[in-house]
Design a protein that fits this description.
The chain has helices spanning 34-37, 39-47, 62-72, 90-96, 115-122, 137-152, 156-189; strands at 24-28, 51-55, 79-85, 102-107, 131-132. It contains seven helices and five strands; from the N terminus they run βααβαβαβαβαα. The chain has one domain (5-154): Rossmann fold, CATH 3.40.50.1970. Bound molecules: ligand C2R.
Length: 190
């Protein structure tokens, strides 16, 4: 069982890199980001999809980022997810080195709650897309789910899990609706 709060995977260029069954490559600009975006790996765990997490930075380790992105497809990776904060160039730079789909997670910062990260991730020039999710825990979850949806295009098992997930979501929200009504009714009776 993996410890969700710690990083795993191996740093590219420092020994054997390939982890078996890795379908999603997650890059984070700094280990300080992980506590804010680890929800992405919770989703991948829920669906049983293999992934690896590496700290890499377009600014601080540009050569490693390039080598990682360029070799990802040939190593079996299907989707790349990049989380970075502030001047968040990681996702865009990764996207420039591969034709795999790249999902960007803007990490929350002290500046306007992460507006800096959001704009620098989402505002790509035409021709090099980054599918950018929202800032915050919902964004990290959605990055994982979007990766799952992309993988489901060619994987019936994952597609079935996705359909099941959506069914359960409806049940979960209906239950919340019932609970809320019950709470309000009780309050009105008093
Ligand atoms: P430190 O905590 O390591 O100083 O990092 C990271 O994602 C993090 O949010 C501070 C912030 O710098 C971000 N960072 C980027 C990139 N590399 C690091 N935005 C990049 O390449 O885009």
């Amino acid at each position: 069982m993996r410890d969700k709060k710690t990083l795993h995977g191996k740093i590219f260029g420092q020994g054997e890199f390939i982890l078996m069954g890795v379908v999603v490559g997650i890059l984070i600009g700094s280990d300080s980001d992980w506590v804010k975006v680890s929800g992405v790996s919770d989703v991948l765990d829920e669906f049983g999809v293999g992934y690896e997490v590496n700290v890499m930075s377009a600014h601080r380790t540009p050569v490693e980022v390039m080598r990682y992105a360029e070799s990802a497809e040939s190593r079996g990776v299907k989707v790349l997810i990049c989380a970075a904060g502030g001047a968040a160039h990681l996702a865009g730079v990764v996207a420039s080195h591969t034709v795999l789909p790249v999902i960007g997670i803007p990490v929350a910062t002290e500046f306007c709650g992460g507006l800096d990260s959001l704009l620098s991730t989402v505002q790509m020039p035409g021709d090099i897309p980054v599918a950018t999710v929202g800032v915050g825990t919902g964004g990290a979850r959605n990055a994982g789910l979007l990766a799952i949806q992309i993988i489901a295009l060619n994987d019936d098992n994952i597609k079935q899990k996705l359909l099941e997930f959506r069914k359960n979501l409806v049940k979960k929200i209906n239950k919340k609706n019932e609970n809320l009504k019950e709470t309000i009714n009780k309050k009105n009776i008093k």
